[in-house]
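Late entry, evening session. Most of the bench is empty. Finally got around to the prediction I had been postponing all week. Sequence below, unchanged from the version circulated by S.P.
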Amino acid sequence: MALLHLPLPSTFKFHSPLANGARRPSWNYRPSSIRIPSYFMISVGFECKKRIKGQYESENATVRRSANYHPSIWKDEFIQSLSSQFKGVTYGKRLNHLIGEVKAMLKKAPSEDSLEQLELIDTLQRLGISYYFESEIKHVLKTLYNKRDLDDNKKDLYVTSLEFRLFRQHGFEISQEVFSDFKDEIEISDNISFLGNINRILSLYEASFSSFENEDFLEKAKCFAINYLEKYMRRTRVDEVDMAMIKHALELPLHWRTSRMEARWFIDIYERKKDMNPILLEMAKLDFNILQSIYLEDLKSASSWWTSSRLGENLSFSRDRLMANFLWTIGTGFEPEFSYCRRMITKINSFITILDDIYDVYGTLDELELFTKAIERWDVNAIDEIPYYMKVYFLALHDSINEMAFQVFKDQEVDVIQYLHNMWIGLCKSYLQEAKWYHSNYKPTLEEYMDNAWVSISGPVILVHSYVFATSHIAKEELESLDKTNDIIRWSSTILRLADDLATSSDELKRGDVPKSIQCYMNDTGVSENDARNYIKHLINETWKKLNESEAENIALSQVIIQMSKNLARMAQCMYLNGDGYGIEQETKDHVNFMKVIDA
C-alpha cells in the first residue's frame, strides 16, 4: 500500500531553498564553549519511575469518566513497513532540471504580459511548488506593483482581483479602492451573464477573503460572488472543470486551504485544463511524491518514538492519535526543511492530546489542581502529591521538553526553556478553568469562554514550539513577543478553536465536557443551534480579517511564525470541514488516503 512516501532531506541533492529563517538542525556542537544551565543537567525520563515504583494509588476506587475512545488503526509495524520509490539522485536531477525551466518562465520580463505572469504565479502556488521560487516571484510582483501607477489602461475584474489577492498575500500594500471601477456593476447587477467568463467571479470571490476589518466593499463583493456562483451552478450547461472549481471554492476559499491538500486536489484539476503546461504538471507531481517520501521518514521516526515511549500503553484512557498528530504538522509546515520541526511537533501534539484527556475526562478536580501546580513548579522532586498516572505523564513531558530545549541551546546557544515552560503553564491553567466550570455546572458567556478557549485549544503551545524548532536564528525579542499576547497567534488559535467547536461540540457534550462556543452563544441569546452555528461561522470569517490585518501590521515578525500561524488556522478549517478530522480515526484515514502518491 502506497501511503505517505518520502526520504530525509539529506537524501536529495536537488535544490531545496530554506524558507526565511528556517532551521536545519546542526549536530556540530561545541560543548566546551557553551555554558549549560543547571536544569538541563537533570536527566529524568522513565528512570525516575524507580523513585515512584510501587506508588500505584488506589485509583480504581475513584469514579472516573470515560470517553470510550476507539484504538488507533495505525500500528507501528504497518507504518515501518511502508516504503517509497521516490528517493535518490535520479528524481532529484529531474526536479532540478524542471526548476530551471520554470525559473526561465518567471524571468520573462513582466512588462511583456503581466496577466501571464500573474497566472503563472497563481498556478505555481496552487500546485504547491511556489516555495522553490520565492525570490523570483517577489521580483515579478515588485516589478508589477511599482508600475501600477504608470498603467493608464483600465483592467478588467479578473486581472484586478488576481492582482489584489497576490499583492496582499505577498505583503504589498493595496487598497480595496482598486475595485472602485466595478462597484456599480457588482452592487446593482442581478444578470447571470453580464460579467461573462466565470473566472472573473471566481477571482473576485477568492480576492475577497484577503480583506481586513471594515473593508465593507470586499464583504459586499464576497456576498455577490457567492450568490452569483450558486446561481451559475444551477445552469443546465456548465463546463465540468468550471463546476469542480466553483464547488471547491464555495466549500472553502483558497486563502483558507492548506498548501499540500490544495496541491493534491489541484494537480488533478490542472491536468484536465486545456491550457495545462506539461512542465508545471510534471514538476508538481514529482515534488508532491518526493515530499511524501520525506513525510514517510518523519512519520516513521515519530511512530518509533511513540511506541518506545509506551505512553499509549501506560495512559490507555487517552486517545492514541499519532497519525492525526503527524498530519497536522504537514499542514502547518510542509516544506522539506521543516522535517525536524514536524518530528518534534508530532511529539508536542501527542503530549497535548493526553493532557487534554486528563483534564477533560480522566482527572478529578483535586488531582487537576495539584497537577497544574506541579507543571508550574516544573520540579521532578515535587510531584509526590499527584497520582501515579500523572507522574508518568509529568516525567515524560518534563524530560522531553527539557531535552528539546537542550538541543536548541547546544545548537544556537539560546535558552528557550522558560518560554516553552510558560506555554505549558498557560495551557494547563486554561484546561483547569474549563474543568472548574464543568464541576460547578457554570455556564460561561461566549466572551468568557473565548478569552480562555483560544489558549485551551493549544494553538500558542504549538506555534511557539514550532517557531523554536523551525528557526535557524532564534531572536530573543521575538520569543518575548510570542511569550506575551501576540495577535497573530491569538487570531490563529481563535480560528482553530471555533472550527474545532463547529465539528466536535456535540460529541464532547455527550461525554460531559464544558459548553463550547455554540452552546455559550445559545445560552447568551436564546437562539437555535442552527443560528448559533451560523454565528460561529461569521466569527471565523471576521477573525480571518483580523489575522490578515495582523500579518500586514507585523511585517518585521519572522515569516516562520506568520506562515505557520496562518497554516494552523488553515489546517483547522480543512481537518474539521466535514466533521472531527482529529478525534475520529475514519476522518483521519480519509485525509491520509487523499494524500497518497500520484501516478506520474
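Two things to note before I forget:
Residues 89-286 form a domain with the Glycosyltransferase fold (CATH 1.50.10.130).
The CA atoms of residues 351 and 397 lie 7 Å apart.
Will write this up properly tomorrow.
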